[in-house]
């Protein structure tokens, strides 16, 4: 803004806004301002700088009493006359709804937004990957004796396998509060019609699936070095653990969307983690499970993950019951443990 420009500078203006006492005296083309003031009874003397003229007639210190109010009232009247009548608009039917962006564009925009969010806040997943590697390394060091392939270390190796699976998945609990905030934003945006829920689901999967594999790799790498697990089966283990982390990450999203705040979601996530550990085949003998409880927990992924991973890595004929290992663990019956490859 220029308070009082020279006549040369004034003629370079395209548009002009004149204010006085917090009201608009004129707003429009600069070359039409003098004509407007002349039309309302305030012509400009010849040879006077237009900017100086308009400042003088709209300044209450120099103008007559009530002059500024009359100038502003004249402009208000002109604005009201220039506004189109609403009667014609109301008879034209409901307004047309603007076309929604295509599904491809929605997914692309949501994907880029999620990527930028992770880049700006790397602790959400990069911090989890680092913490997973440190925690798994610390736990595997406690089971360092399982590197020796003998019958006494079968149980130690089994427990080490369980912790390698459980720890990176359990750390998904830290994402529950973040998912609670995202759920609130998601509901508002979908309600306002910004995008379709399926577009958000697809974009979320495109962002999070690589992260699940990264978290799985951060757990498998240190455990393989410390426990000396067979490298030949690493791709299968990587896929299994990434799928299980994805299950827990998705469940954390559901817990964050409970609508009653993150504390309840965290407690629900803890509950399913404890149930998975109880029924994964290492803490409870299958023969001792109640039939109703066992049937209710059959869809859970943890028991299958433990069985598949242990069979793939070291054990021969490792069935769902894990009868031989549990016999030694619960009844101390020697000689009933699974054999090593």
Strand content: under 5%
Structural class: mainly alpha
| Parts with pLDDT < 50 across at least 5 consecutive residues | 86-93, 311-341
Largest sheet: 2 strands, antiparallel
How many domain modules?
2
Distance between the termini: 84 Å
Instruction: Tell the overall outline.
Output: rod-shaped
Query: How many β-strands, per DSSP?
Result: 2
Strand order of the largest sheet: 1-2
String of helices and strands: HEEHHHHHHHHHHHHHH
Task: Determine Rg (CA atoms, Å).
Answer: 36 Å
Quickly list its features.
single chain; 341 residues; mainly alpha; 2 domains; rod-shaped; disordered C terminus; ABCG_dom; W protein; transport
Could you explain how this protein is built, in words?
This protein is mainly alpha-helical and 341 residues long. It folds into 2 domains: 7-85, no CATH class; 103-331, no CATH class. It has 15 helices and 2 strands. The protein has helices at 7-10, 33-39, 50-57, 67-82, 87-90, 103-120, 126-142, 154-170, 176-191, 197-227, 234-256, 262-278, 291-297, 301-313, 323-331, and strands spanning 15-20, 23-29. Strands 1-2 form a two-stranded antiparallel sheet. Strand 1 and strand 2 (23-29) form a beta hairpin. Helix 7 packs parallel to helix 10 (197-227), helix 8 (154-170) crosses helix 14 and helix 10 crosses helix 11. It is rod-shaped and about 110 Å long. Residues 106-275 form the ABC-2 type transporter transmembrane domain.
